[in-house]
């Protein structure tokens, strides 16, 4: 296992509407630490470079996010964008072969698990594999896993053709499965009821 942070970039997505929560999830404190700050701290345990992709960086300027860099998401004309578009805009800046993509609403992430996964990336030998993700009965978990930078042209083609769904895009390509030993860590905090469980 390697824990070489310099080989990996992390992208944290923080541009969602939080309509189910009713307030910006990124700013909600969990054990006193705003969710985005918490997720970025964990991302920094795995990657030297951490990008936060959001249309509204000024909203997060008072968070403690040392060494994280904002990428201001540019809205596509006549389009609501969404996480796939935000990811593409972040990925365009990435210089490393692999990137760890994280949603900002994952309060139970475990840095040791992410580091363990990152250590397996060197052994993904097959060039056709564009991502390394956890598989659920409903499909891949797109917002807590690894993508190869090679996937950018494929992603841009899909978006240009009007595609906006991670699941649909991933179905068209080869993805390798990450072992999920701690399912709890993918707990997704979308609603006030979820928050009460965080
Ligand atoms: N940069 C960026 N991130 C997004 C966008 N849409 C969703 N996200 C992020 O993707 C992750 C998952 O978002 P969801 O929980 O599915 O949705 P949400 O829009 O935040 O919340 P709801 O309005 O309740 O669906 C979160 O980290 C969001 O901040 C987007 O358009 N741009
Ligand atoms: Mg969510």
From TrEMBL:
Family designation: Belongs to the MobA family.
Swiss-Prot/TrEMBL GO biological process terms: Mo-molybdopterin cofactor biosynthetic process
Recorded name of the encoding gene: mobA
Q: Which residues bind GTP?
A: 13-15, 25, 79, 105
The UniProt comment on domains reads: The N-terminal domain determines nucleotide recognition and specific binding, while the C-terminal domain determines the specific binding to the target protein.
**Is Acetylation given among the entry's keywords?**
no
Give the Enzyme Commission number: 2.7.7.77
Q: Which UniProt keywords apply?
A: Cytoplasm, GTP-binding, Magnesium, Metal-binding, Molybdenum cofactor biosynthesis, Nucleotide-binding, Nucleotidyltransferase, Transferase
Q: Provide the protein name.
A: Probable molybdenum cofactor guanylyltransferase
């Amino acid at each position: 296992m390697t824990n070489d942070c310099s080989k990996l970039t992390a992208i944290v997505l923080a541009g969602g509407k939080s309509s189910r929560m009713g307030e910006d999830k990124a700013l909600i404190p969990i054990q006193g630490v705003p969710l985005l700050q918490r997720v970025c701290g964990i991302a920094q345990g795995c990657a030297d470079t951490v990008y936060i992709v959001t249309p509204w960086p000024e909203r997060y300027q008072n968070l403690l996010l040392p060494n994280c860099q904002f990428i201001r998401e540019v809205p596509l004309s006549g389009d609501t964008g969404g996480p796939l578009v935000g990811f593409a805009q972040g990925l365009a800046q990435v210089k490393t072969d692999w990137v760890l993509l994280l949603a900002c609403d994952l309060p139970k992430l475990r840095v040791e698990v992410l580091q363990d996964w990152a250590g397996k990336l060197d052994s993904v030998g097959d060039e056709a594999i564009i991502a390394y993700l956890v598989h659920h009965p409903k499909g891949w978990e797109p917002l807590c896993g690894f993508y190869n930078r090679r996937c950018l042209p494929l992603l841009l083609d899909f978006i240009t053709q009007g595609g906006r769904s991670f699941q649909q895009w991933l179905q068209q390509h080869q993805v390798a499965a990450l072992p999920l030993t701690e399912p709890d860590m993918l707990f997704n905090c979308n609603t006030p009821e979820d928050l009460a469980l965080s």
